[in-house]
Design brief:
alpha+beta; Glutamine Phosphoribosylpyrophosphate, subunit 1, domain 1; 3 domains; six-stranded antiparallel β-sheet; 17% strand; globular
């Protein structure tokens, strides 16, 4: 886990880019300048603490990467690379494979990564993992291509202006995230999940894409046999996701997914696994601490509880807005940031449950999409968006032909909400504290097993994640996989409500907000409960920080006043 930056082409230096994202690499920064290229790496040391510094050179090629290649051990073994490896870095086997296979080597990777590889054949590649767990942003600029792990790098280096894409801002307010490759900063694009591009004469040339999930439906199978296969696949994924030379643990909620990860980690570790849980101190808040504690006690975890109250809300809000330079107005960023804050100093690697719902069919909107209209069924599409905004979502979410209705809904989330909300949230909130987040469900082997499963092994009646619940019922009964869950809700509206009218008046005057919402509509939103209060508050604070250059605390004071 690191921050990377580079300029491929004449002139330009990666140094000002990397200096803006040194929080991603607290162990040190290295900049390598050569004719026609400048590469920079801010390192968070995880594997081969002494020898894994980058840029890494081997077999005539060079790589700088962010993330982890989990199957580096198997690649070294299967291709008999042992005698040729100069380091224990998880990225070095890739360089030797590229020397043998060229870009076909990228298809062999199992992990979360965004990297730049300059091959022994003189070709330059930018590659991102299929789920988009790790970010990478690109800019064509004056005959060169610049890239970096966060948009703030381009702003700090003066390569783009702090301007606003109004279309992307409307998407943010409608969905809590933005769509596709275009970012909220005009001219700056994301490398799409799984995308492989080549840099040729200062231009970005698409060369292919690895999809996160196989576009097919399995013919079925025996439940007992599927449960055995599920156990094998999940155990293997958690095993490789624990490869680390630094302390690791997990974030534990009261849900199915994190309980599954915790169960497998407890099975594979002799010492108690450290687990952090966040609960909310607010009247009426949904709180899963009691359920998390039951799981922790059953698995003999080293369980650490952290609390989130109104004081945390106002303190952390501007810090989250700063961290989310590619904005995600998901209130789950708040407890994620607090958990990372609590885990810092104890852990360096954190396993989480992201991806379980998308691959195994967990969301209530999936179940509603399968019901007939007369039983309350409705599309899994987001509701309430303007027609033009919804049309863009439909284009981004379109699934291949031949998938079931449930798979189409899953595919839409894997293409939109997962990379641009959940995984962006995880990356920024943890990297702000020098932590690496790992997601064992978002693994090619797990996806190859789970996504093609027939619908009946995902959704039955009022239950999603059917097969995963059956597995957990056997493996960790304390998780109570069939119990009615409280769900996960951050009581942001309760904390905004006492000063909603004043906040609405202040936000209505923020320049970026006025570009996408009429002032009267903003005031009306704050006059009623729920709705757009939180997204508008987040966007206003975000815009003051990233578009107007305000310090985080000053941005909060502008829209809230004195706390």
């Amino acid at each position: 886990m690191c921050g990377i930056a580079g300029v491929i082409g004449p002139g330009g230096s990666a140094r000002p880019l990397i200096e803006a994202i040194v929080h991603r690499g607290p162990n040190g920064v290295f900049v390598e300048e050569q004719p026609g290229r400048s590469l920079a790496h801010a390192r968070l040391s995880i594997i081969d603490l002494e020898g894994g510094w980058q840029p890494l050179h081997a077999a005539g090629s060079t790589v700088i990467g962010n993330g982890e290649v989990y199957n580096y051990v198997e690649l070294a073994r299967d291709f008999e690379l042992g005698g040729r490896l100069a380091t224990g870095s998880d990225f070095e086997p890739l360089l030797h494979l590229y020397a043998q296979e060229g870009p076909a080597a990228f298809d062999r990777l199992r992990g979360m990564y965004a990297f730049c590889l300059i091959g022994n054949d003189g070709r330059t590649w930018l590659v991102r993992d299929p789920f988009g767990i790790k970010p990478l942003y690109l800019l064509e600029h004056e005959g060169s291509v610049a890239f970096a792990s966060e948009p703030r790098a381009f702003l700090a280096a003066g390569l783009i202006k702090a301007d606003l894409s109004e279309d992307r801002a409307r998407e943010l307010l409608a969905f809590n995230y933005t769509l596709g490759e275009e970012t909220i900063f005009p001219g700056l694009r994301r490398l799409a999940p799984g995308e492989i591009v080549e840099v040729v004469d200062g231009r970005i040339v698409p060369r292919g894409r690895r999809m996160a999930a196989p576009a097919r439906l399995s013919s079925g199978g025996d439940e007992a046999e599927l449960l055995k296969r599920l156990d094998t696949v999940l155990e293997d994924s958690v095993r490789v996701h624990q490869r680390s030379d630094v302390p690791y643990g997990l974030f534990l909620s009261g849900g199915i997914d994190s309980a599954t990860v915790a169960t497998l980690m407890a099975r594979q570790n002799e010492r108690p696994v450290t687990a952090f849980t966040c609960g909310f101190d607010a009247p009426g808040a949904r709180d899963e601490r009691a359920q998390a504690e039951r799981v922790a006690r059953a698995l003999d975890l080293d369980w650490r509880e952290t609390r989130f109250g109104e004081e945390d809300f106002w303190r952390i809000l501007p810090q989250v807005a700063w961290a989310m330079d590619d904005p995600t107005a998901d209130y789950a960023t708040l407890p994620t940031y607090k958990l990372a804050e609590a885990a810092k100093g104890t852990l360096t690697v954190v396993l989480t449950g992201e991806g379980g719902d998308e691959l195994f069919g967990g969301y209530g909107r999936y179940r509603r999409a399968l019901r007939p209209a007369w039983l309350g069924g409705r599309s899994a599409e987001p509701r309430g968006a303007e027609p033009a905004v919804l049309a863009r979502w439909r284009a981004a979410a379109k699934a291949p032909d031949g998938l079931s209705r449930l798979q189409q809904a899953q595919w839409a989330d894997i293409a939109t909400w997962l990379p641009n909300d959940l995984l962006t949230k995880l990356d920024r909130c943890l990297m702000a504290h020098g932590l690496e987040g790992r997601t064992p469900f978002l693994d090619p082997e797990v996806a190859a097993f789970a996504f093609p499963l027939p619908d009946r092994f995902k959704v039955r009646g009022r239950y999603g994640k059917w097969l995963l619940r059956k597995w957990l019922e056997r493996s960790c009964p304390a998780a109570e996989p069939w119990a009615r869950k409280q769900g996960f809700t951050v009581p942001v509206d309760a904390w905004i409500a006492p000063r909603a009218a004043e906040i609405g008046e202040r936000i209505a005057e923020v320049a970026a907000v006025r570009r996408v919402r009429e002032p009267q509509a903003v005031r009306a939103a704050f006059a009623r409960e729920g709705g757009e209060r939180w997204p508008l508050l987040f966007f206003a604070v975000w815009s003051l920080i990233h578009l107007e250059g305000a310090a985080p605390q000053d941005a909060l004071a502008t829209v809230v006043g004195t706390i």
